Predict the 3D structure of the following.
Amino acid sequence: MAAASAVSVLLLAAEKNRWLRVPSLLLPPRRWTWKQRTVKYSTTTGQNIAKVLIANRGEIACRVIRTAKKMGIQSVAVYSEADKNSMHVDMADEAYSIGPAPSQQSYLSMEKIIQVAKISAAQAIHPGYGFLSENMEFAELCKQEGIIFIGPPSSAIRDMGIKSTSKSIMAAAGVPVVEGYHGEDQSDQCLREHAGRIGYPVMIKAVRGGGGKGMRIVRSEEEFQEQLESARREAKKSFDDDAMLIEKFVDTPRHVEVQVFGDYHGNAVYLFERDCSVQRRHQKIIEEAPGPGIKPEVRKKLGEAAVRAAKAVNYVGAGTVEFIMDSKHNFYFMEMNTRLQVEHPVTEMITGTDLVEWQLRIAAGEKIPLSQEEITLQGHAFEARIYAEDPDNNFMPGAGPLVHLSTPQADLCTRIETGVRQGDEVSVHYDPMIAKLVVWAADRQAALTKLRYSLRQYNIVGLQTNIDFLLSLSGHPEFEAGNVHTDFIPQHRKELLPSRKATAKEFLCQAALGLILKEKAVSDVFKIQSQDQYSPFASSSGRRLNICYTRNITLRDGKNSVAIAVTYNHDGSYSMQEGSTQIDIPVPKYLSSKSSDETLEGAIAPMTGTIEKVFVKVGDKVKAGDTLMVMIAMKMELTIKAPKDGMIKKVFYKEGSQANRHAPLIEFEEEESDERDAE
């Protein structure tokens, strides 16, 4: 086996993977499917596809590997140091290390990935979504190296990846577009003037990119500058391009997108629409196909407009044309994602197709297998994205080990799309998505019932998730009625995220008992290993280091500290007074500049991340709401604001440094009290 100086190689034999019980791509049995055979020819590229490299990680890498195995195509995985024991590495026929955890040094390194493709003799590269999937330079590099890029031509990525260019092309192709400014003058003054001309509210959007990155809603001129700078920083970080465009923001719109496919023979078809309106932080959380309440004539117009968009750039492969739709079902072109979408499974479920298989075959030169008339819509499908995040804390992402993970049973109408297993870690370096739960049924109400049933079968321990929130969302009367729009979560926040109630006392006591039993297990192990039965650390009786038989354990119930009095009884039992289904051990005082009740909001890092920008220095006076710092954590920009007026006493971190969760970021001067003798 050849070796590479910059790339360490780990080959995993296919035999090693036999123990894995990975659910196959399960679709309702009425569906049309491809014949099971390897792609053996390419009329356009002149190459066979017998081995494909997946330039991605996690769920989408596993998804592509499953279809490749079904087709008899060998798979090659790449992985960062953080992913060396990951699921996609174990599933692939071969796996290669490509560098440290930060994506810039691994999954975004074009040179390393091309080098692995050459070492492994892969004829094609599937980029998945995110990372290099919409990178024009990477698509062109693959072409130069004689490697099939499983995606559109670089020219299509260029034209549709630059939003200002795509708007002009769409307008010329007769696709409706939203009023906006897409010009080359990027000065603050020019952008502000156009925002005023268009009329607030407006949307600031990165010219390149997607996934909600570099996107801000501005509702007044007063907040324009801050939002513009924030969008620019995020765009530069995500796409290495901070050029912006301004568009009229349509209040309470729907986000409706159409799946399209093109081939090298000039054919293009649409596979109906998906509704992705329900979002948080401009990112989708639940998707469905077809769109609720969309009439057949509107559906046809949407599809035909999407095909015109694809043909305007000679599109090849899988793509998604995104529209915003108003309350009267008028729709306007928003952007085109020149890749496979996260939510593609709902389209597969209603059309009986395997879109990854279509990608592989079309990349090898085959024609689209079905004509537009042959693509039929059957039933309804939902996809719910299960994230490690805290919905009660502005959906703050989380990271850590999956101590326990059990899922619904996969069947003909249920798919669990995931890239993690029990014991795996959700890394702070990447997106915190744990899985996609995809369900299908004959109609929307039946599919919604199945979605809620399946969500209740999920059990995850070790990380906070959004499962309960998804249950509340899918059970909301307005969601059931199909009255969805992009402001759905903010509009119904009180019902979806009700105020947290105090935890029942019996749960608190159970949590305290769990901590004591864990402590006892540790003590027993120490006793056996040390063989010193008289050591105070080998005792779990409550007498450790002269501690009396009754001790207090403090737990955290939301923002409240709860003291549990625990009595160690002579018979080995425990008695206690007053814990929760979500009890946390309080943050130690040495990790916080204040106790929990006195902590100044924004002075402590909400999660591990990199300090992107520092706006204050020692001695500065700030007012409540002023921006203090900007952090980048788990693909998200976090703005740290001052909770009240005050003076900066100390700034603990410089730009570019990393701060751990709960680390103090900024210390404020204590306000001097005005003490006067009462006369």
Q: What stands out?
A: The chain has a mean pLDDT of 85. Residues 251-378 form a domain with the D-amino Acid Aminotransferase; Chain A, domain 1 fold (CATH 3.30.470.20). The CA atoms of residues 604 and 664 lie 4 Å apart. The first strand starts at residue 9 and ends at 10.
